[in-house]
Amino acid sequence: MDKILIVDDDFFVLEQLKSLLSNNNRDISFVAKAELAILRMEKEQFDLILLDVNMPGINGIELLKKIRKSDSHNDIPVIMITGDDDTATFVNCFKNGANDYIEKPINTIILNSRVNAAINSRKQIKENLEKSVKISDFQIQLERQKSIQHQLRSLVSRMNPHFIFNILNSIQFHVLENEQELALEGISGFSKLIRTSLNQSEKDLIFLDEELDFLNNYLFLEQNRLGEKLQFNISIPEEIMEDEIMVPPMIIQPFVENSIVHGISNLKEGGIVDIIFSTIKDYLMVEIIDNGIGREKAALLKKQRRGSKYQSKAQSIIDLRMQMFSELHKKNFTYEIIDLFNEKNISIGTSVKLKIPIDLEE
């Protein structure tokens, strides 16, 4: 049975988490102060700690530091709970040893997927340590790859919760406006997207046509939500489709989502996203071009809404995934972002050039 300790001074959150996480395979305990958590951990062994960032007295970051300095507790996975929409907090948590984070308001699907990933990752690491005495250097490397694969699968499962809520709000709007056909199309597309995302989260590689199907469905839902703001085109030569190329799941969609969220959604109408596929030597090239407001203006709008210290957590996750892909497959996964301007030096959008190795083995 997995033992989980929740540390949060908000009793509503404590009860909510206990309700969401409780099942026959979990023993849930909770305390409201960091000092009580330290006493509890001296008496019991836990498999996971859910820790609120903002608490009176010893805050979550300080408690996290104490846990990581303790020889008896430093290997326990810690998931931070935060309501701060601030990349500085996000970076600070990971810098001090957090394994993951949960944002408030808490989403049931995201919560359980991240809790399961953290507990399973620790079990995998413990098994690796027990085996490391007996196995060769080659086998150690193999176990390291398995650990990376597990972390990548966890990252794949992190569909942007804001996107989920936006799509559900769009479907609700169509229902209230008695637009039954659009509402049904949205429900069908959304259920397919969630099902595909969950299926792909268990795979290291998928065929390119599966990635394209996921991408088309995602873009259809965004088009259903944004209406005249968004049109999209996907251009891929037939010979590329015939090659049965394999790629990591959801490797293209986050870049497309960035184009829509930061560029297209800020337009009144006429937004276009072009996705162009080609091959150069041993690489699949994917160029994502949008005619949105550009990165500079998007950053300015975001600062006005959320403060000068805000940075995109989604971008941090993209960078982490690309780094882990490169380490796992021993090949370079790279991307380049290019700001587009017209002859008057006015921003006319953004281009992202994604470079994916072709000869990946399942």
Main features:
single chain, 362 residues, alpha/beta, Rossmann fold, Heat Shock Protein 90, 2 domains, 5-stranded mixed sheet
Characterise this structure:
Helices cover 51% and strands 20% of the residues. With 362 residues, it is of the alpha/beta class. The chain has 2 domains: 2-131, Response regulator (Rossmann fold, 3-Layer(aba) Sandwich), CATH 3.40.50; 161-357, Heat Shock Protein 90 (2-Layer Sandwich). The longest helix is centred in the first third of the chain and has 25 residues, at 108-132. The radius of gyration is 22 Å and the shape is globular. The two termini are 33 Å apart.
Question: Quick summary of this structure?
Answer:
A hairpin with a 2-residue loop joins strand 9 and strand 10. The chain is α/β, with parallel strands linked by helices and about 350 residues long. The chain is about 50% helix and about 20% strand.
Q: How would you summarize the topology of this molecule?
A:
Elements: E1 2-7, H1 11-21, E2 26-31, H2 34-43, E3 48-52, H3 60-69, E4 78-82, H4 87-95, E5 100-103, H5 108-132, H6 137-156, H7 161-176, H8 180-200, E6 206-207, H9 208-226, E7 230-235, H10 238-242, E8 246-247, H11 253-263, E9 271-280, E10 283-290, H12 295-306, H13 313-329, E11 334-341, E12 347-357
Parallel strand pairs: 1-2, 1-3, 3-4, 4-5, 7-9
Antiparallel strand pairs: 6-8, 9-10, 10-12, 11-12
Helix pairs in contact: 5-6, 6-13, 7-8, 7-9, 8-9
